């Protein structure tokens, strides 16, 4: 295992060296770095040109200059990174540090959401092959697949943001026409998804339509979009809603991972959910209260890990004979419960945030990665980041989500047609066991590779999205560098994306080995 | 449930394979593929639409290539500046409207479509040619040739296409669409090379290759006459997908300013130029986007149809309703013959062999019945 990883890492470094050499020379030969100065009328032009030549070593031919650049990068191994200077004489390291955070945030969020959505929808389409739902999703994913990302981004910016902001400023009341259309479409999707005979479809359609219309009407009439709290009259019933979600998570996770035939996993799931409900109120006054505790992203991640471990621990303690299943259920329910609590905490700052003087009731942002000079608690800053991330992430994830849906569907269908699935059914296993344990795990093997490869493409998409939404991220670094024939910032961008691509390739190989016991990494 | 079955009984699974056999009886591979492709409604519709778009784009504003100039039937040219009619709103005279200067957007979009189509085809041809040659050399000769070519592929694959495209575009963009397509093609072959190599690795071990070699065929003849035609499915399908990717990449590059440059035009460039006018002149924005989507969507659907057509494992699955009807017929027939009906869904199952799900083999929670035989999903064909 260790030798495999080391061998792969060495190969990756060699590949990266060759690729950076190629890109460096391509950029250096693509134009003239002194172009702006040659046309300038400044009196000290000769000095300026000489200063730039000295700063960027322009007197060295590009193939050799690459090695000067490389020795600066080599300093990273001894703690002194030197990515060189830009044409404007700024050190690239500083620019890169500022830009990287934004882009990585954007790419991570859109990728995670795209993977989850894509896999879930892909599975459901494969299980309902040749249904109206399947055909609909197939067409929609082909459509998304064919969308030019810059076009979607501009549309989202012009329609999505302005439309949503107008809607919020007008009091957040949904029009009856929209409610009617949305209700019918949701009902049809559920009816097609759950399937069965005509009577059952009609019942599914009825139930989901009533539920959807009810929720929308409630949201519309109580101004939920302006202040997303669950209230009836003056009573704040958030705890009821949060608790309901946690219990639903317990039932849902158990239904997928363990089934209800044996009691222990469900008991563990419910116990974790109840623990979450009990902890909800005390948490509001301690960890989640900004005047008591200063939250940060690393600490939040640590909390998430601890939460999952507690869930797994409860499963281990009370799992009995189904210990492994109970541990999985406990971990997932704990994670989802924690997630619900965090979402609820962010919702609490929604109203003060959108009514504040800087936002003035138009919270969906179209420019930049954060509101300039915004101040507030961790939760306000997080919400601000999220409102800025919303539209670019949607633009990015639409396209990769379409790909994931197609791949998951194809891969799962391929597996479901295998003999061992027929055998598993013939043995009398439940459909849940067949799909989750036998089919899904094997279907994941090719998907893992696709996801790893998709990261590089997603970063390319991020360059375009950043430009449309005016982000000052890595895409800007790359573009301004390229426009001025300035290899240093371009290389800073490329070395990060290239390293990420190679890293994810390695992860894909390891995931392969973890998912498929026939593959040995050595 | 009795397991006694009579051969005359139409079981679902038998019917399925009979149906499939009957369909391909006495047909050459080309005929089978064509037949399957034309059964795919989406693909056939897409092909018709694509042909119409190509005809429209090339006849309306004519062709202008390397100094050659053939006028089209449309009254305006993409670089003409007629007076602005009705504030540039779409009218009978200018069906797609006009921009602030007065350019007829229909002519501009048609020219942009031409350019995008041309770049797409050039990238497809160049990418496919390089990918096929490198992939087949790599897979056929193996050894050091293989490692050399594959390491080179790894290097190129590390550079995201849009990045390579932008850098190339910054250098060569002003030389025109054809050159741009040519250079973009040099970076688009990596995926195809890997797939072709994979096909060659398995095909070169087959008997017909040995037979050809015994008969004295040269390496070149074995590669191009014997192995390559057998890998044609993978190649065609992936070339179409490559082209769909190429058109999106080209428009994105033109949007960023690294693709086709003014005075010539491209769909991405039109969108980029008129993006700020979205509030006042939305038609400048809708039409070029619509044409990009139509072309990319058509190519993707054609690729899907080709994949279905070339896939030897592809079975035409009867719909749920057809299955049920067949099951009912079987049940009725059984009742008529006077004995209990079989459950059609299980009648064909190989109940005696218990296979193992590979992912479960090393799994910690194995509460399954004993495993009799392992099955390899990787060699499912």
What can you tell me about this protein's structure?
The complex is a heterodimer of chains A (522) and B (381). Chain A has helices at 2-29, 35-38, 45-56, 62-74, 92-127, 132-145, 149-169, 176-194, 198-222, 238-257, 264-285, 297-318, 323-348, 350-355, 378-416, 419-426, 431-468, 474-483, 487-515, and strands at residues 231-232, 235-236. By secondary structure, chain A is an all-alpha fold. Chain A has a domain at 173-222. A two-stranded antiparallel ribbon of chain A has the order 1-2. Chain A starts with a helix and ends in a 7-residue tail after the last helix. Chain B is an all-alpha fold. Chain B is built from 16 helices and four strands. Chain B has helices spanning 12-24, 29-39, 41-60, 105-141, 143-158, 161-172, 177-185, 190-203, 207-214, 219-227, 232-256, 267-274, 283-310, 320-337, 344-347, 358-361, and strands at residues 63-65, 68-70, 355-356, 373-374. In chain B, strands 1-2 form a two-stranded antiparallel sheet. A two-stranded parallel ribbon of chain B has the order 3-4. In chain B, helix 4 (105-141) packs across helix 12 (267-274) and helix 6 (161-172) crosses helix 11. The radius of gyration of chain B is 28 Å and the shape is globular. Mean pLDDT of chain B is 77; it is low at 1-12 and 340-381. Classes of the chains: A mainly alpha (522), B mainly alpha (381). At the A-B interface, helix 1, helix 6, helix 7, helix 16 and helix 17 of A face helix 5, helix 6, helix 11, helix 12 and helix 13 of B. Chain B: It comes from Agrococcus versicolor. Chain B: It is found in: Cell membrane. Chain B: Residues 338-381 are annotated as: Disordered. Chain B: It is a multi-pass membrane protein. Chain B: Residues 113-303 form the ABC transmembrane type-1 domain. Chain A: Residues 251-508 form the ABC transmembrane type-1 domain.
């Amino acid at each position: 295992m260790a030798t495999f990883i080391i061998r792969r890492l060495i190969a990756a470094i060699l590949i990266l060296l060759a690729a950076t050499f190629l890109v460096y020379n391509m950029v250096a030969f693509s134009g003239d770095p002194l172009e702006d100065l040659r046309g300038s009328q400044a009196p000290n032009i000769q000095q300026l040109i000489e200063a730039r030549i000295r700063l960027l070593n322009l007197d060295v031919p590009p193939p050799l200059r690459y090695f000067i650049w490389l020795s600066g990068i080599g300093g990273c191994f001894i703690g002194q990174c030197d990515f060189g200077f830009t044409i404007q004489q700024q050190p690239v390291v500083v620019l890169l540090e500022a830009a990287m955070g934004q882009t990585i945030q954007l790419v991570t969020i859109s990728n995670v959401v795209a993977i989850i959505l894509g896999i879930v929808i892909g599975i459901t389409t494969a299980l309902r092959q040749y249904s109206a739902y399947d055909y609909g999703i197939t067409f929609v994913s082909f459509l998304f697949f064919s969308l030019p990302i810059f076009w979607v981004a501009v549309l989202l910016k012009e329609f999505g943001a302005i439309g949503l902001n107008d809607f919020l400023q007008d009091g957040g009341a949904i029009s009856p026409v929209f409610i009617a259309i949305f209700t019918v479409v949701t009902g049809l999707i559920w009816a097609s998804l759950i399937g069965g005979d005509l009577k059952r479809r009609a019942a599914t359609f009825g139930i989901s339509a009533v539920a959807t219309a009810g929720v929308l009407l409630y949201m519309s009439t109580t101004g939920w979009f302006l202040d997303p709290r669950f209230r009836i009259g003056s009573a704040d019933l958030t705890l009821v809603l949060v608790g309901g979600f946690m219990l639903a998570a317990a039932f849902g996770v158990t239904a997928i991972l363990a089934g209800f035939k044996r009691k222990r996993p469900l008991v563990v799931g419910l116990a974790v959910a109840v623990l979450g409900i009990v902890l909800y109120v005390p948490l509001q006054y301690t960890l989640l209260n900004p005047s008591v505790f200063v939250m940060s992203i690393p600490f939040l991640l640590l909390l998430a890990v601890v939460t999952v471990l507690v869930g797994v621990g409860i499963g281990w303690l009370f799992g009995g004979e189904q210990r492994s299943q109970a541990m999985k259920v406990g971990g997932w329910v704990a994670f989802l419960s924690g997630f619900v609590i965090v979402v609820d905490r962010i919702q609490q700052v929604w109203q003060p945030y959108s009514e504040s003087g800087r936002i003035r009731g138009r919270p969906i942002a179209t420019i930049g990665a954060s509101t300039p000079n915004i101040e507030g608690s961790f939760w306000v800053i997080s919400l601000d980041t999220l409102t800025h991330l919303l539209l670019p992430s949607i633009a990015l994830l639409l396209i990769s989500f379409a790909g994931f849906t197609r791949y998951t569907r194809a891969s799962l269908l391929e597996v479901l047609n295998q003999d061992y699935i027929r055998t598993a059914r013939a043995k009398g296993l439940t459909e849940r066991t067949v799909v989750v344990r036998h089919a899904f795990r094997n279907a994941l093997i090719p998907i893992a590779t696709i996801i790893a490869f998709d990261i590089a493409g997603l970063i390319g998409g991020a360059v375009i999205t950043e430009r449309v939404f005016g982000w000052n991220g890595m895409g800007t670094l790359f573009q301004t560098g390229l426009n001025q024939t300035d290899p240093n910032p371009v290389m800073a961008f490329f070395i990060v994306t290239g390293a990420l691509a190679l890293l994810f390739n390695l992860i894909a190989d390891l995931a392969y080995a973890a998912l498929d016991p026939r593959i040995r990494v050595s | 449930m009795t397991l006694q079955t009579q051969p005359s009984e139409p079981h679902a699974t038998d019917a399925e394979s009979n149906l499939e056999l009957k369909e391909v009886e006495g047909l050459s591979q080309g005929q089978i593929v064509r037949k399957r492709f034309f059964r795919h409604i989406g693909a056939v519709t897409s092909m018709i639409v694509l042909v119409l778009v190509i005809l429209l784009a090339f006849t309306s504003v004519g062709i202008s290539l390397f100094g050659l100039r053939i006028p089209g039937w449309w009254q305006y040219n993409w670089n003409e500046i007629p007076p602005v009619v009705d504030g540039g709103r779409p009218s009978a005279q200018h069906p797609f409207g006009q921009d602030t200067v007065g350019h007829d957007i229909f002519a501009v979009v048609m020219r942009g479509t031409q350019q995008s189509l041309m770049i797409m085809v050039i990238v497809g041809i160049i990418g496919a040619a390089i990918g096929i040659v490198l992939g087949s050399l790599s897979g056929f000769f193996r050894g050091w040739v293989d490692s050399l070519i594959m390491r080179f592929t790894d290097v190129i694959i590390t550079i995201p296409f849009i990045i390579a495209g932008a850098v190339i575009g910054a250098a060569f963009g002003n030389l025109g669409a054809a050159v741009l397509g040519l250079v973009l093609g040099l970076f688009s072959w990596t995926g195809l090379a890997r797939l072709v190599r994979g096909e060659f690795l398995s095909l070169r071990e087959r008997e017909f290759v040995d037979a050809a070699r015994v008969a004295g065929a040269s390496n070149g003849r074995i590669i191009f006459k014997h192995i390559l035609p057998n890998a044609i499915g993978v190649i065609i399908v992936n070339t179409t997908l490559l082209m769909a990717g190429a058109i999106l990449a080209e428009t994105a590059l033109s949007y960023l300013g690294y693709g086709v440059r003014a005075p010539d035009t491209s769909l991405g460039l039109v969108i980029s130029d008129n993006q700020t006018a979205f509030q006042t002149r939305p038609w400048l924005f809708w039409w070029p986007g619509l044409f990009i989507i139509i072309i990319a969507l058509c190519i993707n659907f054609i690729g899907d149809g080709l994949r279905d057509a070339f896939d030897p494992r592809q079975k035409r699955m009867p719909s749920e309703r057809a299955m049920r009807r067949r099951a009912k017929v079987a049940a009725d027939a059984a009742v008529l013959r006077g004995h209990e009906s079989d459950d059609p869904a299980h009648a064909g199952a190989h109940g005696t062999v218990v296979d193992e799900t590979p992912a479960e083999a090393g799994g910690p929670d194995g509460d399954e019945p004993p495993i009799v035989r392992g099955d390899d999903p990787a060699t499912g064909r």
